[in-house]
């Protein structure tokens, strides 16, 4: 019988005092199960997030941050523990949180045509959740539509603190940029990255203003269906003037007050954005005012089709046969080098649909190496040994898999010249190691496609 893995625990499995019901999704670092406490007469559902990587330190960090933030728009941390199992009988940490009944923000918005007033109400709740996070001297660092759930009565919840940190927490990453999702990066973060991309010891120090900027991107995407353009591109590197953000009203009818708040959050200068608390108050006031155009429905435009980066993975497979492990970093490095001569905008995810790109390298391995498909595919924690999942990874190519790719467990893989334990970014299956092939088109990395 196949060993269980954190992704494949069956309904009824007991972890500590928690009994799993079903898996509701998974991200780059964790599988989320609906569960309940054992022995309760009328059990309340909880969300149990189980690490995909053994001894993953990000879980401790997420628990610590969640425990510090107390706010009705943030799920409470109820417990934490670890599950022992998998092929190497390793220890996988888990967190138990309040169950949030809701839909991801962009998808919710597709099903609930929005007015500016409704949008202000949603944004204000997220801003309040951010205010509480910042008051706890924490940072979320991955504010985006996919990390906001909206309940049936329009309650918004800020989720997934797995990329977060707080003042005084130790660095978990050696990358220039901490975790995050590329289109939501502030201009300061992008410029810092451009400047220090080759430095060994440079780390961008995110601030609450980065979270506010990401909320601005979320709002912009929510009403226009597109991301604002990145501020700094390779082409304008010598001229670091900010690219002007096209006002959302060029695309959708929205209230002037909402537009000015969105553009304020997207200000190039962090001081001009305002704090989460100030913005929340302004949004709440605007949402209750008679206001101009507040009740006109917005109809986001249809998605824009991707134009670049679709089949870059082909070049990796041209030499045929097995891919020797040392070749992969070289090949990826070459692609990175090449991509650095492209306009950054050209490799921006064209995610005009209802989902974000996954968190880049999500939680820790920062994100700034573009994946072959233009999306971060692979988490890169250190010293891991991963079994091949029974289903394709988010963003992984599905069969038919052109040679020399191999179709296994519903996904396309490159076989590596290595045997388990496979090491960073590789997966073991039947005594061989494999690397996932990115999907040729923009995938969803945050949800089961
Ligand atoms: N407390 C919760 N209550 C209900 N559903 C939850 C809860 N926490 C997470 N989920 C759901 O579980 C799924 C996986 O969430 P998770 O945060 O692990 O990854 P993700 O956000 O999909 O991906 P990534 O972290 O890679 O961006 C998502 O559909 C999310 O909405």
UniProtKB/TrEMBL annotation:
GO terms for molecular function: kinase activity. Residues 18-288 form the Protein kinase domain. The keyword ATP-binding applies. The keyword Amino-acid biosynthesis does not apply. It comes from the Bacteria. Keywords: ATP-binding, Kinase, Nucleotide-binding, Transferase. SMART domains: S_TKc. Gene3D superfamilies: Phosphorylase Kinase, domain 1, Transferase(Phosphotransferase) domain 1. Residues 349-402 are annotated as: Disordered. ATP binds at residue 49. InterPro entries: Kinase-like_dom_sf, Prot_kinase_dom, Protein_kinase_ATP_BS. This is Serine/threonine-protein kinase. It comes from Stigmatella ashevillensis.
């Amino acid at each position: 019988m196949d060993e269980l893995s954190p992704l494949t625990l069956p309904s009824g499995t007991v972890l500590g005092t928690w009994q799993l019901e079903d898996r509701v999704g998974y991200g780059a670092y964790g599988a989320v199960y609906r569960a309940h406490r054992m022995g309760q007469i009328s059990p309340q559902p909880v969300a149990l997030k189980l690490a995909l990587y053994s001894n993953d330190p990000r879980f401790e960090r997420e628990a610590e941050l969640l425990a510090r933030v107390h706010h009705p728009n943030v799920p409470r941390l109820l417990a934490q523990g670890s599950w022992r199992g998998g092929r190497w009988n390793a220890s996988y940490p888990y967190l138990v949180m309040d169950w949030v009944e809701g839909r991801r923000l962009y998808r919710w918005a597709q099903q609930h045509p929005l007015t500016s007033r409704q949008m202000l109400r949603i944004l204000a709740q997220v801003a309040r959740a951010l205010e509480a996070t910042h008051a706890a001297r924490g940072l979320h660092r991955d504010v985006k539509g996919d990390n906001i759930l909206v309940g049936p009565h329009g309650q918004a919840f800020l989720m997934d603190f797995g990329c977060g940190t707080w003042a005084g927490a130790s660095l978990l990453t050696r990358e220039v940029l901490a975790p995050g999702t590329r289109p939501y990066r502030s201009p300061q973060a992008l410029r810092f990255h451009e400047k220090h991309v080759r430095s060994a010891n440079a780390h961008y120090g995110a601030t609450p203003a980065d979270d506010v900027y990401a909320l601005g991107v979320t709002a912009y995407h929510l009403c226009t269906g597109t991301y604002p353009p990145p501020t700094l591109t390779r082409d304008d590197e010598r001229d670091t003037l900010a690219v002007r953000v096209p006002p959302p009203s060029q695309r959708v009818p929205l209230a002037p007050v909402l537009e000015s708040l969105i553009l304020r959050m997207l200000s190039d200068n962090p001081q001009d954005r305002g704090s989460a608390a100030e913005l929340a108050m302004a949004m709440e006031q605007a949402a209750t005012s008679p206001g101009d155009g507040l009740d006109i429905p917005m109809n986001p435009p249809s998605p824009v089709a991707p134009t670049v980066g679709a089949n870059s993975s082909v070049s990796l497979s041209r030499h045929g046969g097995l891919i020797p492990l040392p070749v992969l970093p070289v090949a990826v490095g070459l692609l990175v080098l090449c991509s650095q001569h492209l306009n950054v905008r050209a490799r921006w995810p064209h995610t005009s649909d209802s989902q974000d790109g996954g968190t880049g390298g999500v939680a820790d391995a920062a994100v700034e190496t573009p994946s072959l498909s233009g999306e971060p595919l692979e988490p890169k924690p250190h010293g891991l040994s991963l079994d091949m999942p029974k289903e394709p990874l988010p963003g992984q190519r599905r069969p038919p898999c052109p040679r020399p790719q191999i179709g296994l467990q519903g996904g396309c893989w490159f076989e590596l010249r290595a045997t388990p334990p496979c090491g960073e970014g590789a997966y073991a299956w039947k005594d061989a190691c494999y690397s996932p092939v990115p999907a040729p088109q923009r995938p969803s990395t945050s949800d089961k496609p």
